[in-house]
Amino acid sequence: PTWHTLGRTVARGRSEGTRHAPAASKRRGGGSRAGSAGAQRPLDRGDGAGGGHRRVDPAETIQAEKKQTTTEEEVEQLCEEWTPEPLCPPLKTWQKRLKPPVLSSDCGSTCVVEGRPVKNFAQTNFLGMQEREEVRIAAKKAIEKYGCGSCGPRGFYGTIDVHLELEGKIAAFMKTDESILYSYDLATAASTIPAFCKRGDAIVCDQACNWGIKNGCTLSRSVVRYFQHNDMEDLETKLKEIVEEGKKSGRKKINKRFIVVEGICSQNGDLTRLDKIMELKEKYKFRILVDESLSFGVLGHTGRGAAEHFGIDPSRIEIITASLGNTLGSVGGFCCGTNEVVDHQRLSGVGYCFSASLPPYLAAAGVVALQTLQNSREALMERLRENIAALRMHFLNIHPKLRLSGDPLSPLAFLHLEEQGMGDEEKQERLQQICDNLLSKHNILLVVNKFSHLDKKHGASSLKIAVTSSHTIQDITYTADSLRAVAREVLSM
Length: 493
Hints:
Elements: H1 2-19, H2 23-27, H3 33-40, H4 58-68, H5 72-81, H6 93-96, E1 110-113, E2 116-120, H7 133-146, H8 161-174, E3 178-182, H9 186-196, E4 202-206, H10 211-219, E5 223-227, H11 232-249, E6 257-262, H12 274-283, E7 287-291, H13 306-309, E8 319-323, E9 333-337, H14 339-348, H15 350-353, H16 360-395, E10 402-405, E11 412-417, H17 424-442, E12 444-445, E13 447-449, E14 462-466, H18 473-491
Parallel strand pairs: 2-12, 4-5, 4-6, 6-7, 7-8
Antiparallel strand pairs: 1-2, 3-9, 8-9, 10-11, 11-14, 13-14
């Protein structure tokens, strides 16, 4: 009944709109029956010759309007034929069969799935912090002291001393004035970008950035231009366009202009050319936001990320964001910069103001994990680099149709299926079949890199492989050999 009533309203609205439309638009064929009939008659010019416009006779207009009236029977038929737009795209048959693996243990390099131990190459616990005993002990003590959650946002009664301790230690480690914690890592950039950018501002974003960053750009309502990943010529072209448009507009007030990139790209594992981007940023007088979620604790001499890797002083970067869920093995995210940048977010960062604060035991785990990174970084990062090199060596020639991508310094690698005439959805199905066979026959956990249907600029589907310092060389070689056998079986079908 609800859809039927709505359909009647829509149909009548169309009828009323047509009834009051100018007769000239009806003759041009506005989709109605009278319009079609009128379009078949040649229009006369004032001199009597065909092909021009003539004065409309009022009597003819009234007659045409009568013909446009929709009857009750036609309204009923429109209601029966009308179908509402679906809320989301329909699932494919293979997508309906998907059964996500359920873990019944911690999420380390080895975990328990469906009652049996498996080798885990799906998680991004790069330095193995989630498995370390000192981190678990700190979390347990925090639960005993503070309970499980704060049950309130930071601006009201959700700020706990351990939050301030972690923020202070992150700021000191990153060599910035201050830092701010967010309860959810994906919401960090999605809240930070709209806090500083608004309608009329300009953002130039790497089109290979993760969905959280792109969502933040959309929510800011700024003018957003995407440049080809790691293409400095395309980036400079976009920067020039925005500068020239600003000059032509004649605005007295200079709007904010940002470049937004990731340290290590989440779609293909590439290392962003941050040194070249900084040169263009300063040449065209833009600000920059760098997301170090995948490079924090991985790149740089002390693990500060891509900026340190390229020798860039933190003071040259206006905003740095990162996740606590990768290197530190906790949950949430952080943003660091000057005192003004951080203080502004405490009132304007939506994810900060309107979310319950990070559970204190997760903040306590982050404090100890950061201390462990500082105290044991050489051993942990050296072991990770050795495993990254082993991964690239053994996974390079898995199958002729699988192409390996990712920087030699990145702990994330991707295997892209290259098959002529095969669409992305079909590739997803084949890659998912490889993952299912690896889990069921070889006890190896891998995942297919998936994208939101709202992301119109995402990359191609691929197998995502994450290596950590906790893996052994035997884990890597066994996984490569098993993947080679499964790929040969699935891709020959």
